[in-house]
Amino acid sequence: MDKHTTYKWWKEAVGYQIYPKTFYDANHDGHGDIQGIIEKLPYFQALGIDFLWICPFFDSPLDDNGYDVRDYYKVHENFGSMQDIKTLITTAKKYNIRIIVDLVLNHTSDEHAWFMDVKNNPDSKYRDYYIIQKANQKMPPNNWGSFFGGSAWEKLNDDEYYLKIFSKKMPDLNWANKELRSALYQIALWWLELGVDGFRIDAIAHIAKDTTYENSTLKSETMFVSDWSKFSNLPQVHAYIREFHEEVLAPNDAFAVGEVGGDPSIEDVLKYCAFDRKELDVTFTFDHMWCNNIDTATSLANLKTNVQELKEKLEYWQVSLIKRAWYPLYWNNHDFNRVVSNYGSQKYPQQSAKALATLMYGMWGTMFIYQGEEIGMENYPFTSIDQFEDVQAKGQYAATPTSQKEAFLKKLIMTSRDNVRTAMQWDDTTNAGFSPVKTDILIHPKYKEINVQQQMQDPNSVWQYYKKIIKLKKSNKTFIYGDIVFKDVIDEQVIQYERFDDTNHYLIIVNLGEYECVIEIPKVISIVLTNTSVTAICETTLTLAAYDSYILKIK
Ligand code: NOJ
Description:
Elements: E1 14-18, H1 34-39, H2 41-47, E2 51-54, E3 58-59, E4 71-75, H3 82-94, E5 98-104, H4 113-120, E6 132-134, E7 153-155, E8 160-163, H5 178-194, E9 198-202, H6 235-252, E10 255-259, H7 266-273, E11 282-284, H8 307-321, E12 328-329, H9 339-342, H10 349-361, E13 366-370, H11 391-399, H12 405-415, H13 452-457, H14 462-475, H15 478-481, E14 483-486, E15 494-500, E16 505-511, E17 517-520, E18 526-530, E19 541-544, E20 549-553
Bound molecules: 1-deoxynojirimycin (NOJ).
């Protein structure tokens, strides 16, 4: 049987990621909530969304905005109650919208009952739920660095440290302990029982660690080394995920998308989600997110997309994985800066937002749209370190030597995750329609110009363009299952690829540059979608203005 075309609801579905804190404040306390998501269900229906991935809303001290879970069975009061979640699940079903929960299983909060017991009781039965090692002459057990800056270890007491590859308030769990694994599976099963359709599984690539705990030998200028190989994509991860699949996913036919960081190769990824692996359905990887000069650029004005590199990355993953595994298509999530700011144009932001949508969503795979992407929201104009809220930004800034802080701040302004965590721009009223009361959430100053209400009324808006591309994707199987072939990049700015099957043949053309260029094209049967005002093409040459894009039927 052809596993590529075997029907699974999530292959043909369009997902939308919600960062609940900044999405919509229904109860008017200045903070986004679950009721806010319920109120916006008709909005998702209008756009054509089939499932929602909601970032963590569990009880938490919110050190990392909910990725530090204190109680997996409780909703944080800022977001509402368990009853609200139940209402969301049942009401969403009426709109044919499924709910995907963000499951954080690599770590808990240090305020979770298990870890509290470990801290307070030397004989705690939960000690082995975490990774605790002897101090090395009063120093951390080894030189491993944390994703959030500094050491990957934090002091538990005078003689011991616990592993925390993210923040010190997020102790890593010890998946080698079977009892712990069972407790985690119970959590997942409980949520499935409640009615969710699956999970986005956080940091899944890191659940197995190098248990020799030997120092990293990578060269480093800092005392603690950013050597992700010590806790990323290790062989043991797969034994754990298979068990999770067998005990949790398979019996419930639940959808699972794993976040796979740590620079995985195609072979690594196939181990997680090849059709016959019985592990995950899809994995998020990040290769295509860094194809510009963001490491050296000092501001958005001199940020430049390397179009050749971007095309190569997209081609590599699309062509290597097709017919072997399924793929998630995304430009944005809650951990990156806004795609319009990253790869789009300062001069033509809305046009470039549409071009980027054409490029990404014309490919094969499940669409994941991040809140605000569908209206072309942009990075926040940060000016000082005090405006940042993210524990990662603050941790990395603190770990940066004083002489480099200024340069680091410039980088942070462009790259920080806080750029995508500003209030959703609903309309041009107070706080962009996110909340009518005073709020701590940042409101982008451009909200009067860029907002949902205005864009739903404007036939040429980014929102309308997203709606069209979603409709196209859902009404035409060639865009879901069809093959893909990329062409050479033209003038370092035009990406082209073809999508085809026995019935249809399409050419997708995207100009990711600000210069006009003329390209040769085959005979065009019809224009399926474009962000230009062109209505017919009779020639075999096509003039592309800045960020023009087309989906053309060519056979
Ligand atoms: C990945 C999540 O996407 C990110 O937001 C979080 O900070 C880390 N995992 C830790 O949970």
